[in-house]
Design brief:
Layout (H helix, E strand, L loop, with lengths): L16 H4 L5 H8 L5 E5 L5 H14 L8 E5 L2 H13 L6 E4 H16 L6 E2 L4 H10 L6 H16 L7 H8 L7 H18 L1 E2 L1 H14 L1 H10 L2 E4 L7 H11 L5 E5 L14 H4 L1 H4 L4 E5 L1 E2 L4 H12 L4 H4 L5 E2 L8 E7 H17 L7 E5 L5 H10 L4 E4 L8 H16 L12 H10 L13 H22 L5 H14 L8 E5 L8 E6 L15 H15 L2 E12 L37 E3 L27 H6 L11 H18 L9 H10 L4 H5 L6 H15 L5 H17 L1
Parallel strand pairs: 1-7, 1-8, 2-3, 2-6, 4-5, 6-7, 9-10, 11-16, 11-17, 12-14, 12-15, 13-14, 15-16
């Protein structure tokens, strides 16, 4: 038996208190025997934290120091609480309460409500989204399904951070939070939602915590009754507590200090829900005499995986990084983590699927393999790639791609457009299959620019954007394909992926993978803009993205693969680069190293294949601001080749001439203006004022096709030539089109 795992599924109950301590390592034993005063356990990934705290409780009970009914262990998920109860039973401490914060608070609220308030406890809303929708309607604010989810999330965040409706706009600014829509509107909906609940005698899950806090604050007799019942507290995943949960914990404790908290600031990845590691980091300050035990012996991962995890955190910044734990693997050596660079996304998915298939062939169970990505919309290409090689899979924490509501809705609309497109005004300006798809999906709210921030609206956009990319790739592979052909392709993919699976490879987002582990883990899509995600802008947000990748790395026991692709689709420009978090960790990523070439093989690096001709692409370094020389990562900044905040050298007169010319071209070709050039590309041209074709070609957004089609006109405009005839011709065409309609 190792220090991390039990020897069987049904171990014998220890026959004595001392027997409970058998098999614990020295630090775990310190945790188990520290039964008095405040205790803080800093536990790294895979170090056996649950084992340590359950043995601590069991040892205290078996030694007669703790009464089972006087102990309350709280954690964050019902699954974790159930696991804790199961372990305690196996250790002979079955009478201990192990619950989530909400479950423990609800139980107390139900018991004390008649005494504290009188009557029955208000009805508990299982889902608040319907009432939020009604509140929005009362405010005459229209929200679609995804906006409803995002606004509901903002209300939940407000309540766990103890923010009232009137203070929401200011709190959002103070927290550096990006609201999914106007903060004043959300505050108004929030206030109306609270009023509707009061009118109907209902409460939500956040109210359970708030009301329990209120009862314990106002009724000292009830607070003392709770404290006489529970005298010893254990809090797991303490880095994830919210201010409201901490307030409840303080009221449970009173002036006592019989508290044991367990956490790891390096695994704080839920700050968007109100979680904060500050309570863990400040524990020693609040409790100067606390016993602090650091668990750093990693029983989960091989030395190779642990070395990479430590290296990843060694580059971290901020307060959490100052408290990082240096893990020490207790396992035998395994294979080196494999880094793979691919030419494009399909090649990355296909390469990953082949490696998964080979692992299964070598004896690794499919259920012990996971493919982890940053956002759920990335799953589709991996679902398809695994299906193509006959590997079963299961999605965790999200619907299969083709079962998502927005994808189903898009399928219906595309099918209708394929049948009746000749009579559909939406398709009047579409010039090819991708533009037809963009036109149809624009009716569902898809735009060429992603919405700000994260949340359901962003998730919906990502799903629709994945369909647009699929259409673009399909059109490249089959230039003569029609919309009906694309719909048939989508149906075929959906049918192939609907086969039920009992056991399969896990596909999951990094957030959904927290708390899980597998023999083999593939971390995919590790490019700038995805890891860290584009909307992570502040230093704190960037560091949380680094911690998210750390969580992904530490899910692997033996095999670890990390990959990225240089282009989105086959034949696309290789403009992407590997995540900054891999700098100094992957072979060849030192300061003097250049970009690796797909297909080459050196050391422990796997080179991906891809589209023919990929090896001939020009190597590109990171984009840098031409004003301050800072590395650029945002797409808009990369187009302008400068930071948004840096001084602009825009030739406004040229910019206006370019816009007029673009409008004429768009009218002539009957397509949206952005299909000619986007606003950002026009701004970049008006700032750079290229004088030659090669200078124009260097501007992001000006590919070979557009250079051939529009280059002469654009260079003429930049040179100050008069293209009035071209503009007038476009205006006349627009007038004719207008009169026809």
């Amino acid at each position: 038996m190792t220090a991390a795992t039990d020897s069987s599924l049904f171990p014998q109950v220890p026959d004595s208190a001392d027997a409970v301590l058998d098999g614990l390592d020295p630090e775990q034993r310190e945790v188990a025997t520290a039964l008095h005063g405040p205790v803080c356990v800093l536990a790294g990934a895979g170090t056996g934290k649950t084992r340590a705290i359950t043995h601590r409780i069991a040892y205290g009970v078996r030694a007669g120091i703790l009464q089972p009914s006087s102990v309350l262990a709280v954690t964050f998920t019902a699954r974790a609480a159930g696991e804790m109860r199961g372990r305690l039973r196996q250790l002979g401490a079955g009478g201990v309460q192990a619950r989530t914060f909400h479950s423990a608070a609800l139980r107390q609220l139900q018991f004390f409500w008649p005494k504290a308030v009188g009557g029955e406890v208000p009805r508990l809303l299982e889902r608040k989204i319907q009432l939020v929708a009604e509140a929005a309607a009362r405010c005459r604010i229209r929200l679609d399904r995804n906006e409803l989810r995002d606004v509901t999330g903002e209300i939940e965040w407000s309540k766990v951070t103890q923010t009232v409706p009137a203070d929401y706009p200011a709190a959002v600014v103070k927290a550096g939070r990006e609201a999914p829509r106007d903060a004043a509107e959300i505050g108004q909906i929030y206030g109306t939602y609270e009023q509707l609940k009061r009118d109907r005698g209902a409460i939500d899950f956040e109210d359970v915590l708030l009301l329990t806090v209120g009862v314990l604050q106002d009724r000292h007799d009830i607070a003392e009754q709770v404290r006489s019942q529970y005298q010893h507290f254990v809090v797991d995943e303490y880095q994830d507590v919210s201010p409201l949960q901490q307030r409840l914990l303080d009221l449970w404790l009173g002036d006592r200090d019989s508290l044991c908290v367990v956490g790891d600031a390096s695994q704080t990845i839920y700050s968007f829900t109100g979680a904060t590691p500050e309570h863990l980091l400040n524990f020693r300050t609040r409790h100067p005499h606390a016993t602090v035990v650091k668990l750093v012996r990693d029983y989960r991962s091989t030395p190779q995986v642990v070395h990479l995890a430590n290296g990843l955190l060694s580059q971290a910044k901020g307060r959490a990084a100052e408290h990082r734990l240096e893990l020490v693997s207790q396992r035998e050596a395994g294979p080196e983590p494999a880094f793979a660079e691919y030419a494009d996304e399909p090649a990355e998915a296909e390469g990953t699927a082949r490696r998964v298939r080979d692992l299964i062939a070598s004896g690794v169970p499919a259920s012990e393999i996971a493919v982890l990505f940053r956002i759920n919309a990335q799953s589709e290409v991996y679902e398809q790639a695994l299906a193509d090689v006959g590997v079963p899979y299961q999605l965790r924490g999200a619907e299969r791609f083709f079962e998502r509501p927005e994808v189903r809705e898009a399928g219906v609309k595309l099918r209708g457009a394929a049948r009746f497109g000749a009579n559909d005004a939406l398709l009047d300006d579409a010039v090819d299959l991708p533009s037809e798809v963009r036109a149809v999906l624009s009716d569902m709210g898809w735009t060429g620019v992603p919405p700000a921030g994260s949340g359901a609206v962003r998730d919906r956009w990502e799903s629709l954007a994945a369909l647009v990319r699929l259409a673009e790739d399909f059109a490249k592979a089959r230039p003569e394909a029609t919309l009906a052909d694309l719909v048939a392709e989508l149906d075929e993919r959906a049918n192939a992926q609907h086969a039920p699976t009992v056991e399969g490879v896990t596909l999951a987002s990094l957030h959904a993978a927290k708390g899980l582990e597998w023999d083999a883990v593939f971390l995919v899509g590790l490019t700038e803009g995805m890891m860290p995600i584009t909307y992570a802008r502040t230093d704190e947000q960037i560091e949380e993205e680094r911690r998210l990748l750390y969580v992904g790395v530490t899910r692997a026991r033996l095999h670890l693969g990390l990959s990225w692709s240089l282009a989105r689709s086959p034949g696309g420009r290789a403009s992407r680069r590997a995540s900054r978090f891999l700098n100094g960790l992957r072979p060849g990523s030192g300061a003097a190293a250049g970009r690796r070439t797909p297909g080459a093989v050196t050391g422990g690096v796997e080179r991906g294949g891809g589209a023919a001709g990929a090896g001939r692409r020009r190597s590109r370094g990171p984009a840098r601001c031409r004003v301050c020389n800072k590395t650029l990562t945002a797409a808009g900044e990369m187009k302008l080749m400068r930071c948004e905040d840096c001084p602009s050298e825009l030739d406004e007169a040229l910019y206006e001439r370019l816009r007029d010319w673009r409008a004429a071209q768009a009218d002539r070709s009957r397509q949206p203006a952005y299909c000619v050039f986007t606003d950002k590309t026009l701004m970049a041209i008006a700032e750079a004022v290229p004088g030659t074709e090669s200078e124009l070609a260097c501007i992001s957004g000006v590919g070979r096709r557009k250079l051939d089609r529009y280059g002469t006109d654009v260079l003429a405009l930049c040179a100050g030539e008069d293209l009035a005839g071209v503009l007038e011709e476009g205006s006349e065409g627009a007038a004719e089109n207008s009169s026809e309609k």
